[in-house]
Amino acid sequence: MKIVLKAMLLCSALWSVTALSASKELQVGDIWAYKNRPGEDGSTLTILKIENYPKLGKVVHIRVDGFRMINPVTGTEFNDMPHLPFQAKAIERSITHRIGETAEIPDFDQGYTAWRAAFDERKAGVFKISVSKTLNGMIKGNWEESD
């Protein structure tokens, strides 16, 4: 009887680990809830693109919707960020549960192209911290008006 009980516990533990790791498998088009900032419970992230880089590993490009931020230069509110690049581990630590998926990936070409050009010149990288910490850091960042 003890052997059967131990086998059942082992199988249960293995199933739980498998289910947990499968639940955080990142796919292009997936929409996820994440550990968001206070008052932004409806904020989500959408996976736009996944790439592998020799030095960075898996890089996940996301879009974030449903947050509230004031542009300190113009004073206007915005609620979405069309492109942010992250190391996959940072996204995996940020997400809580998958909400759904979209077959229509939102356009992020302008942000991706600008990031990729700067990345290739070694002037840009990827975020290694959580999505909410990244958004908080953007609020505190140096903002300037551009054309």
Key terms:
single chain, 147 residues, alpha+beta, five-stranded antiparallel beta sheet, 5 strands
Please give a quick description of this structure.
The protein is of the alpha+beta class and 147 residues long. It is built from four helices and five strands; from the N terminus they run αββββαβαα.
Description:
The chain has 147 residues and is an alpha+beta fold. The chain has one domain. The protein is 35% helix and 32% strand. The protein has helices spanning 2-23, 88-94, 109-120, 131-140, and strands spanning 30-34, 44-53, 57-70, 77-87, 95-101. It has a 5-stranded antiparallel β-sheet with strand order 4-3-2-1-5. Residues 4-23 have low confidence and may be disordered.
> Could you spell the SSE succession in H and E letters?
HEEEEHEHH
Based on secondary structure, the structural category is alpha+beta
- Largest sheet data: 5 strands, antiparallel
Could you say how many structural domains there are in total? Answer: 1
Sequence of strands across the biggest β-sheet: 4-3-2-1-5
Count every beta strand, where a strand is a DSSP E run of 2 or more residues: 5
Q: What is the 3D form?
A: globular
> In terms of per-residue confidence, which ranges show pLDDT below 50 for 5 or more consecutive residues?
4-23
* Radius of gyration using CA atoms only: 19 Å
Provide the residue-averaged pLDDT.
85
Tell me the helix content.
25-40%
Range of strand content: 25-35%
Distance between the termini: 74 Å
Write the layout of secondary structure elements.
Layout: H1 2-23, E1 30-34, E2 44-53, E3 57-70, E4 77-87, H2 88-94, E5 95-101, H3 109-120, H4 131-140
Antiparallel strand pairs: 1-2, 1-5, 2-3, 3-4
